[in-house]
Target: Conjugal transfer protein TraG
Amino acid sequence: MENAASLSLDWTPASLTLGFTDDASQRPVYFNGNESLITAGGPGSYKTTSQVIRNLLTYPGSAIVLDVKGELWEQTAGHRAAHFGPVYRFSPADKDQRSHRYNPFDFISDDPAQATADCDAFGYEIISDNPDTRDPYWQNRARNFLWAFATMIAISTPKSLRNLAHLAQCLNISTIGTKEDGVITLASSTEAALKLLSALGDKHDIPDLRAVSDAIRAGIGLHSNRGESILDIARNHLAPFSQRRFVQEVTRTSDWHPLDFRRETGTTLYLNVSTSDLPSFSPLLRLMIYQHMRILLDHVAAPGEPPITFFLDELPQLGNFKSILQMQAVGRSAGLRLWMFVQNLRQLYTAYGLEAGRAIPEDARVRCYMKPDESIAEHIARTLGETENLFTGERRSLATAAEIRGPKFRNKTFVFASEDYPVILERRPAFQDLGYLVQEPPEVPQLRTSNAHPFASDDEVEQDTPKPETEI
Ligand SMILES: Nc1ncnc2c1ncn2[C@@H]1O[C@H](COP(=O)(O)OP(=O)(O)OP(=O)(O)O)[C@@H](O)[C@H]1O
Ligand SMILES: [Mg+2]
Model:
């Protein structure tokens, strides 16, 4: 253990507790590095209580937390707010309409060259790759349309209209033309939007904006209106923002900046969306997490600053979130690390496809397994050639897959860390010894959702789809 490269018995501000030594001393074992971790364990295997909650109660660095059950906010936000830094809860589907607010457009440049790059994330994070799709033509086109309209909003609309509800509204243009004497006339709002897209494309030398405008125009009046089908895919992904008033309010402005996690160590964001709401909200959460990662990657941590840790409990519920895996590759040097939690490896193969799904645990610096299923138990048995007694340094060969799943290892966490021998740790849920740290979480603001126009601020005059000539 003394020579261990990844695991340590010494606490530092960067320490994440993985478990406890399985001898009489029961000392905590830490990972102090900047790389990513993954934990796999079946339902009820104490992943959340022994690793996520334990670390949120003890880790003083900044954290971004996926909290599908609301348990992480309930049990750790009070303590973190009292001892570590500001806490935010983004809960866009909350029944009591309590949430902090985040508008992705606030972090998109209004400089055309930069905005085109920033807006790529709208396409890629909102419409994720379906690993089973052979022909991604429609998906790619819908991304391209989303990108174009997002870019249009980013570079041409006033601040009060730079938001997701307005993006959804812009995509709702009618693609039905009226034909008279062979000439097709578009609805005036459609004509305005398409003209604005091409004018912006020409003015700022972004040919793809004109191309999207031309593609939509060309489809109108044709028997198979491809433009309409593509717009429909994009609309479906944005439906929650155009249909729910509370969501519009939650994404109208921002209560924090992604750089706050760096500026104020100990800042915590809880992304609190239940499993049943996640299918509608995972595009937004992917976009938000991606934006935080992107912005923070450009602002490297100061020496000695604990890494900003993304605790993604129930990660597979976010769908195919490939871009987050960049953090595994490049996060280290910027002081960003990812701790992913899954029930089994199959969930990763389903969400990411077999190849990428396999790479995720392979690329993690630390892999923890609790209550392993059969295939993980076999993997552990194969990998566990021998293990090291943490005290004596004595090595011994370990167990069969059946033994690994049996009573002997019921309360254990198997830890495989690159550059270390595998270790078997005692698993201890936070409620056993840290229950006294749990405090009432702070009050989250209740948002007023009036009947005012859904996406303009109160002092704005109501506006319809894009206002072309005046803005370019
Ligand atoms: N405060 C508590 N006191 C006593 N038992 C608890 C407490 N919190 C959770 N448990 C129990 O601990 C067990 C492990 O829960 P935990 O949430 O850590 O599992 P998990 O591995 O995260 O499961 P899942 O994949 O379903 O989220 C469960 O049986 C749960 O009911
Ligand atoms: Mg859990």
Remarks:
- Residues 110 and 155 are 5 Å apart (CA to CA).
